[in-house]
Amino acid sequence: MSKKQKFKGLRLILGDQLYPFHSWFDDGKDYVYVLMEIKPESEYVKHHIQKIVGIFAAMRNFAEDLKDKDFEVAYFKINDDGNEQSFEKNIQLLYEKYEVEEFEYQEPDEWRLDEVLADISGGTMVSSEHFFTDRDEVETFFKDNDSYLMERFYRHMRKKHDILMEDGEHIGDKWNYDKSNRNKLPKDHDVTDPKTYSHDVSDIYQEVQDAGLESIGNIEPEKFIWPLTRRESLAYLNFFVKNMLEHFGDYQDALSNEYWSVYHSRISFSMNTKMLNPREVIEKVEEAFYERDEIDIATTEGFIRQILGWREYMRGLYWAKMPDYKTLNHFNNKRKLPDFYWTGDTKMNCLSKAIGQSLDHAYAHHIQRLMITGNFALLAGINPDEVDEWYLGIYIDAFEWVELMNTRGMSQFADGGIVATKPYVSSASYINKMGDYCSNCEYSHTKKTGESACPFNSLYWNFIDQHYEKFKNNARMGMMLATWDKMDGDKKESLLSQATKYLDNIDTL
Ligand SMILES: Cc1cc2nc3c(=O)[nH]c(=O)nc-3n(C[C@H](O)[C@H](O)[C@H](O)COP(=O)(O)OP(=O)(O)OC[C@H]3O[C@@H](n4cnc5c(N)ncnc54)[C@H](O)[C@@H]3O)c2cc1C
Ligand code: SF4
């Protein structure tokens, strides 16, 4: 009879910690690796069905890989009889089963989970070995400053990690090429089709239904498009670098009726579940820049800034500002999110397209999130709690540490200007400038008042008027305030009454 193996303890792997090169796995055969699908983790907001299915499927693949490498794995599927649907209770069960008293866990990226896991007896937290920065690094960096300017942090990161640097100097004639990256797609420009998979996830989908987990969004269970393993995540990344990166910079702000992800990488799900490491993503892009003439500095810098700059900065601010950040509501916005955010059923073509594809693919690119759905929500004075809940639920890459800072901070300015130096709002002219949404719309982007006037136009000026006092000390809002000041009184009146009419009938827009 073989002797029963004695284990040192448990090691908990969360659904967004699927990093196979964590040092745990260098020689960790005397630990039991634990993964759990539990209801509270799927129900704290209504998630997109593709997000729930995608995370469960990726977790199961990860567990199988560990087993293939002879690691001891304890896996709780969502409907397993022995699944107590709680981290604490399942850990207690495994303490008894394996006769151990301790567990290790990688630092969770979410405040709520940090508290939950810290309360379980026998736990020790270790680094997730994923980010460039430690949790408190951003806070320490900005310690003696009253503003959290991302650009300062980003330059520090470039120097510290020697990325796009040569002999201590930045490559190219400037640090930041943001202003170069702002074109709409030219007429008749064909965008390469994005890489997708066609996984059959029907079994997991059925299990999620049987478990009664509520969800939003659409799914084709026989044609699941997202990568579910590290190997597939790498294939997405490689496809992007080979076929899309060249045009990323030019068209990253472009809005399109035809192309749902334009030249974006769609690697956020893989990175946020840690199947991909940000270092390897940046290395691949930097390598392409050095090896291929068609990859210019503007594109390379623009892409790397998103990951080395924004992604790390958002995470650091999250840990610096939580838990209070989650309650900030600078404009005291109270309106309910219109029903069409859950259906895409609106006459406003830009919103219908951005919401429709979010329901279909659990994805929208940055400018759709910021300047379409986010812009409208802010102009309409929607309660940021509702806006947060929507963004946290609908996107496959949405995890609170990055969703909250982008939504409440960058998009809704509910933090009063910690993340963004001014609110990201616009009238229809920006949306029309960046793409072809307006040409398919029942509303007219040039009309400000009267029938069929684009709602963004009057809501924009209504927003300026309503918050005029709050903007007075913001130099970056000066031009908008001056334009409003100069506007003829009757014109102002009709814009404000148009906005009121639209807001009173928001669900019918
Ligand atoms: C209102 C709002 C909500 C958002 N919610 C999320 C979210 O829940 N999860 C999430 O990962 N991103 C979020 N973002 C940031 C950004 O929109 C997504 O990271 C991006 O659209 C993901 O698609 P992609 O992988 O094709 O990105 P690309 O455009 O190809 O960019 C490459 C990578 O850069 C990183 N990145 C780009 N912009 C940001 C940013 N502002 N903050 C942090 N990382 C960034 C992402 O990791 C992304 O994968 C949000 C943005 C807004 C305006
Ligand atoms: S006209 Fe207005 S509502 Fe219609 S697509 Fe353009 S910006 Fe959106």
Describe the structure.
- Strands 4-2-1-5-6 form a five-stranded parallel β-sheet, sandwiched between helices. Strands 3-9 form a two-stranded parallel ribbon. The chain has a two-stranded antiparallel sheet with strand order 7-8.
- 46% of the residues lie in helices and 6% in strands.
- It is α/β, with parallel strands linked by helices.
- Helix 12 packs across helix 13 (366-379).
- The structure holds flavin-adenine dinucleotide and iron/sulfur cluster (SF4).
- Flavin-adenine dinucleotide binds at residues 264-268, 271-272, 306-307, 310-311, 314, 365-366, 369-370, 374, 391, 395, 397-398, 402-403, 406-407, 410-411.
Q: Percent helix among the residues? A: 40-55%
Q: How many structural domains in the coordinates?
A: 3
Per CATH, what is the topology of the largest domain? Serine Threonine Protein Phosphatase 5, Tetratricopeptide repeat
Q: Major β-sheet, in short? A: 5 strands, parallel
Strand content: 5-15%
Can you list the strand order of the major beta sheet? 4-2-1-5-6
By secondary-structure content and strand pairing, the structural class works out as alpha/beta
Q: Work out the number of β strands.
A: 9
